Amino acid sequence: METKKITALKQQKRKTTRVNVYLDGEFAFGVEKVIAAKLAIGQELQAQQLAELQDSENLESAYQKSLHYISFRPRSINETRKHFSRKGMLPEILDAVIERLLERNYLNDSEFAQNWVENRVAFKPRSRFALKGELFQKGIDNQIIEEVLADLDDSKLAQDAAQKRVHRLEALEWNEFRKKLMGYLGRRGFPYSICDEVSRNLWGQIHNETEHA
């Protein structure tokens, strides 16, 4: 059975995480360092071993790309799967990559959803309905969505959202104040009744504060 001998292993200059493999004195292919670590100069490889090596390289290369993708911000499972499907990653490779990411807890939809909601509540408050829609778009399971939204109250969320906007509206007359604040809250998914209630409460606070100034 024909075999080929590894005659050199050289780190690539531009991509230092990859290693060029030379067989019988000629460049054959590049592999990730973690794959190259299992190789040695002088090692003889049969055709089947070369095929298995290439399969391992394809998987490892795809995995490294996935780590790069999720390094910028947390990603949901569905978001990650869609991204690499669009990039043309083979389904069997993608399945294996997702499985590895899940095993190492690099993908966790429960943590993703919780972090997403906490970030929104802190910086861009919006209604439970709006948050549910955002998480649904990310492919989060309904059970997880219900769990992370369970303790949220729309009235409190609307109040928090309004507080971030009201300083721009304080000088307006009531009708204009109400119109703009209700529009602002409505675009964030809050129902009319809550928008109206929060607008009236904040107007009252501002009015009372002005009287007592």
The CATH superfamily label of the largest domain reads Winged helix-like DNA-binding domain superfamily/Winged helix DNA-binding domain
Q: Strand tally, please?
A: 4
| Overall spatial form | rod-shaped
Largest sheet: 4 strands, antiparallel
Computed structural class: alpha+beta
- Write down the CATH topology of the largest domain: Arc Repressor Mutant, subunit A
Return Rg in Å: 28 Å
Q: Would you mind describing this structure in some detail?
A:
The protein is of the alpha+beta class and about 210 residues long. It folds into three domains: about 5-105, Arc Repressor Mutant, subunit A, CATH 1.10.10.10; about 110-150, Orthogonal Bundle (Arc Repressor Mutant, subunit A), CATH 1.10.10; about 155-213. It has helices at about 35, 45-70, 75-85, 90-105, 110-125, 130-135, 140-150, 155-165, 175-185, 190-210; strands at about 5-10, 20-25, 25-30, 45. Strands 3-2-1-4 form a four-stranded antiparallel beta sheet. A hairpin with a 6-residue loop joins strand 1 (about 5-10) and strand 2. Helix 2 packs across helix 4 and helix 9 (about 175-185) packs across helix 10. The longest helix is centred in the first third of the chain and has 24 residues, at about 45-70. It is rod-shaped, with a radius of gyration of 28 Å. The termini are far apart.
